[in-house]
From TrEMBL:
Gene source species: Cryobacterium tepidiphilum
Pfam families: Pyr_redox_2
InterPro entries recorded: FAD/NAD-bd_sf (IPR036188), FAD/NAD-binding_dom (IPR023753), Ferredoxin-NADP_redctase_2 (IPR050097)
Keywords, sorted A to Z: Flavoprotein, Oxidoreductase
Official protein name in the record: NAD(P)/FAD-dependent oxidoreductase
């Protein structure tokens, strides 16, 4: 039997949890679906989230889910979304969502008046043998989140993108002992390199062999020619891909050049009834607090849209 809810939220990170909590408090029936594959699972501490500075991201998710599930109308499903399709049946349902159950839960088919995407991003790190061993402890991706903990340390910024100079400039707020490593791929123009040099930041364009360390601490960046540049830690610039692209191929959702979902100021996508919040929307990866804010903002729009217009209520006569 197909289930029905007012709103189905995909993703139980800060954006999805904030949206789900707001909607269930608006007395909406809400199903929150999550595959338990958070991008920040390797991170030990999350920073900058008011009243929760330094909390484990997994603990933050646990607390948020418990708050959500304490309300009538709230339901959680451990599953991976397979598809979001226009609903076949007439009535209030706009979408049919199918899932693959996880952790012993069955597959489900659910219809919903509104679907809110908060699945975030899938990240791909530079292909270095040991980079995962240091990621989340010595190496991080979010400068705003973890820059304070790396203050005045000898840092590396590793990436293969064209925005390394801008990221290095931002990171120099916390440490001037900084080197940019392009791994022979990342783009730093001559003008950008000169500007960074004036700020005391050097650029190394050689290919990287690996990240090295001892006794559980990163000690340097080993280059392909064998030289080891001493570094205590740093930041890596992953390549990010919106996770929602895997199940949205049957809906005409507008995205930007990076695949991020385009939304209006209230989280509405180009498909009526479909919304998005968090890192899936431009500008992409950001702080947890910012993601949660977009979730709450979008939930308000979902609730208002589900009511319909005041003119419709006036025309149709008294309702419930």
């Amino acid at each position: 039997m197909t289930e029905h809810v007012d709103a189905l939220v995909i993703g139980a990170g800060p954006a999805g949890l904030a949206a789900s909590l707001s909607l269930v408090r608006a007395r909406r029936s809400v199903l929150l679906v999550d595959s338990n594959r958070p991008r920040n699972s390797a991170t030990l501490h999350a920073h900058g989230f008011i009243t929760r500075d330094g909390i484990s991201p997994l603990e933050l998710r646990r607390l948020g889910r418990a708050e959500f599930e304490s309300y009538p109308g709230a339901a959680f499903h451990s599953g991976l979304v397979r598809s979001v399709l226009p609903a076949d049946e007439a009535g209030d349902a706009r979408f049919t969502v199918t899932t693959k159950g996880m952790r012993g839960e069955p597959n489900r088919e659910v219809t919903a008046q509104a679907v809110l995407i908060a699945t975030g991003l899938v990240e791909t790190l530079p292909a270095l043998p040991s980079i995962r061993a240091w990621y989340g402890t010595n190496l991080h991706s979010c400068i705003d989140c973890d820059g304070y903990e790396k203050a005045d340390a000898a840092l590396a910024l590793i990436g293969e993108s064209s925005d390394l100079a801008e990221r290095a400039f931002l990171l120099s707020q916390w440490s001037r002992d900084l080197m940019v490593f392009t791994n022979g791929v990342g783009e730093v123009t001559a003008e950008e390199e000169a500007a960074l040099r004036r700020r005391g930041i050097s650029v190394d364009r050689r290919a990287i062999r690996d990240i090295v360390g001892e006794q559980g601490a990163m000690t340097g960046v080993e280059l392909e020619d064998g030289e080891v540049i001493q570094r205590e830690g740093g930041f890596v610039r992953p390549q990010w891909t919106p996770a929602a692209l895997s199940f949205l191929q049957h809906l005409p959702v507008e995205t930007d050049a990076d695949g991020l979902i385009l939304v209006d100021d209230h989280g509405r996508t180009s498909v009526p009834g479909l919304y998005a919040a968090g890192d899936s929307i431009a500008p992409g990866a950001g702080q947890l607090m910012v993601a949660a804010g977009t979730g709450a903002r979008t939930a308000a729009a979902v609730n208002r849209d589900l009511l319909g217009s005041l003119l419709d209520v006036y025309r149709d006569g008294p309702g419930d």
